[in-house]
Amino acid sequence: MSSPDKSPIYTIIVAHDPDLVIGDSAAQDLPWHYPEDLKHFKRTTMGQPLLMGRITFESIGGKPLPNRPCYILTSGKLEGVRCFSDHRQAMDYFYTSRYQRVFVAGGAGVYKTMLPHADEMIITEIKKRYEGDVRFPEYRHDIGTVWKETDRTEHPDFVIKTYIRDQGDEV
Ligand SMILES: NC(=O)c1ccc[n+]([C@@H]2O[C@H](COP(=O)([O-])OP(=O)(O)OC[C@H]3O[C@@H](n4cnc5c(N)ncnc54)[C@H](OP(=O)(O)O)[C@@H]3O)[C@@H](O)[C@H]2O)c1
């Protein structure tokens, strides 16, 4: 099969609390358990490739999620999964791949490096505050300029918002 030589769409998918907390480094896990948000993650990413950091990969059991090829950023090597030593190497690989979209699934360092390259963000805003020391990078000052909200779904405990990078008015 010929490769398209075209950058895929990079979609960040994340859940954060009001202080941008996404995780806890001691527990290496999510600070909360919202089954409806996990279902949303599963539904949204099903069949699509995921790019994530080594710790996040270990936190999901150290093996790819069903029907979602996983690509890992790490300075090391992991058995049975494609690893990249930096995001540029990963992006070069995806450029020549058949993927039209890649989901960026965390954690903090991966979000931070990939945020400037992201075309879209699907963000679950958890309403309650949680303890945790792993945070999503601050982006909220860019809403309305860099990021345009295109969709919003309300749940009792959280709101799921979709943002696309605003390309400005095209002529
Ligand atoms: N709420 C959410 O939506 C969400 C999503 C994902 C994760 N989380 C949570 O976040 C926490 C894990 O995140 P984390 O930030 O601590 O770790 P992480 O980003 O998952 O993994 C960090 C490791 O990934 C590698 N890495 C990261 N960025 C890299 C880069 N640009 N280039 C090369 N390698 C890179 C390094 O691996 P080596 O040390 O092997 O070199 C680094 O030590 C957990 O608590 C997890 O549950 C939350």
Description:
Helices cover 19% and strands 30% of the residues. Strand 3, helix 2 and strand 4 form a beta-alpha-beta unit. It is globular and about 40 Å long. The relative contact order is 0.25. It contains 4 helices and 10 strands. It has one domain: Dihydrofolate Reductase, subunit A (3-Layer(aba) Sandwich), CATH 3.40.430.10. The strands form 2 sheets. Strands 5-4-3-6-1-7-10-9 form an 8-stranded mixed beta sheet, sandwiched between helices. Bound molecules: NADP nicotinamide-adenine-dinucleotide phosphate. NADP nicotinamide-adenine-dinucleotide phosphate (NAP) binds next to strand 1, strand 2, strand 3, helix 2 and helix 4. NADP nicotinamide-adenine-dinucleotide phosphate (NAP) binds at residues 14-15, 22-25, 28-30, 52-56, 59, 73-76, 85-87, 105-110, 113, 134.
